[in-house]
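User: Quick one: structure for sequence A, then sequence B.

Assistant: Sequence A:
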Amino acid sequence: MNLPKLVQEPKFWLVAVAGVLMALQLTLSDRFEQVELFGTSMLAWGAVSFLIWEKHSALNLKSSVFAKFFGATLVALVFAKTVFLSSYDPFLRFFPLISGLGLGLVASDLKGLKQYWQELIILAFPILAPAPAFLVKLVDISPITAKSAAMMLWYSGFNVRHEGLFLHLPTGSVEVGSGCSGLSVILQLLGLALLVLFMFPTTLGQKIIVPIVAVLVGFVVNSGRVALMAVLVASSNPQSFEYWHFGQGSLIFSMIAVLIFGLITWFAILREQPENQDA
């Protein structure tokens, strides 16, 4: 490998800047203890890197002076913004998409951005997953979650009484707030479903089924988590409740949802690839 010749290639600097941007956003997400954002961002960055690598030889890397200037300005603004971050800022959710737009303009001009439409959609995942507070309140599915958790408890043999957002057990009660509705898990799995559709050849039927499976798995797994928390409250076990509600226990349920979704998608859907690989 001729390193002096390599560093003269524009593609080298694009890859280098992209790597720095990835590392910076992930480092800040980790430093500010945004675990869900870190996981979603890592998944998005990784998927985009894979897709770009798969088609890098077919990309049109020609850009105008204006597009290069505008794209470089976006990237510079991203770097400048991070210098002043001392705590979590919602900007970190938009960081990947803005960075992707900037790099795309530098590499391929405004018209060339259509080459990266899949990658730009993926880089928008962190904006909505984990679900921001306003979206959780806007799309409040907690009443349905409470009813589903009550059904799980009842069929499991617990003496449960369901009243609106409350689950009453003989020795304790729990309220299912909007933050426990499961919207974040559902959005994360929908993002994963979109990755599956982008990275695997699928039929029209599979394109419809995969997102539906993502929603159902996310909702059912979160309902199970809510049912467990109701049992922990009723058993007067506050430490365990805190662990499964706010601690790493909530992340374990997210991992379980991803695992179940992955298994269902692979064994029941994607094992039968369509004959037309360009589908």
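Sequence B:
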Amino acid sequence: MADVKMQEKYAELALKTGVNLQKGQALMINSSIEGVDFTRIVVRKAYELGAKDVIINWQDDEITLLKYQNESEEVLMDIPQWQVDKYLSYAEDGVALLSIRSTNPDLLKDVDPAKVAKASKARAEAMREFQKYTMNDRIAWSIISIPTGDWAQKIFPDSDVEEAKEKLWDQIFKIVRVDQEDPIAAWDKHNQTLKDAHQILNEKKYRQLIFKAPGTDITFDLPEGHIWKGGGAYTTDGLHFNPNMPTEEVFTVPHKYGVNGVVSSTKPLIYGGNMIDHFSLTFEEGKVVDFKAEQGYETLKHLLETDEGAKRLGELALVPDASPISQSGLIFYNTLFDENASCHIALGKAYPTNLEGGSDMSNEELDQHGVNDSLTHVDFMIGSAELDIDGVTADGKTEPVFRKGAWALDI
């Protein structure tokens, strides 16, 4: 059993630095029943901080699998309106949303990918209005993870369940800085480092970034008025929060019509309870026109077929190979962690906040500025110690941004 005091420090960090819970504010938690002990710690801490209400949405991997094995597509695709209204009513009240993600990476590997894709798309369509609250930072939200047995043993296959969970707890505590004397102060310092990095990139105003590595030769146009962000964010009401814990990235929006070349994955992607690995995508004028995958080809195909926007990009993120997650030498089979070990891009919806004035634009205006829209947003990793990145300035000059997976700028 992981040290309870460390779990309490982690819970406090998630509430104070993650969602920045305010006195008199409601908190909604999405969590796995396998993590009930930690979730109870979070709930107790939330009330101590003055939460007026704590709402729990429980998930259970075994029941989820049973539903996919036994329910028809029609039933899985039927999202009751009351479920949608529940999220919307709390969002309208300014709820803080904390998601504790710890799903078994292989949960749905034996389920028809088409069935999973249809159910995922139906839920995304139903929750489209709620998605605006998170994608536009109208509410504070944060994602963290805790060990579960299946996930831990995926990472540490030679250990029994309890030993694997202990090893994963140790890694998580280290990666999210809970092992430091004052994790909140450590995160304040880390957020400042990421802020310094994205401020330098915002001053550069690159019109293009060119990525080259084994299997990758691709150019990303950047929209005029694009904004680099990273670390903490601010709600529309001015409240600071950290959407992802851990986070090591600075990110922006690529032009949805201006991506050309081939890009290859460097880490597995877990999507819809299935693994996609050793895959590549070919882009022309921003759209995927060809793709390959040694594992999970059908799952990747269904992801790309979610809607028209799923074939285009919504995010471009820079992460040096020296990040603590990369240096752990582990593959976490969890996008929250693996994306922060590596430069990555995301298929699907872009964050309107990555464009000047984007949060106030209509979908048509966002499209005119090159900002992608989709029901999905799926990050996958393309960085490595072999990645070189060049930036093209407004006057056409080219300068190094990354060399061999490390910053070439003074960051």
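The two ends are 39 Å apart (CA to CA). The first strand starts at residue 26 and ends at 32.

User: Thanks, that's what I needed.
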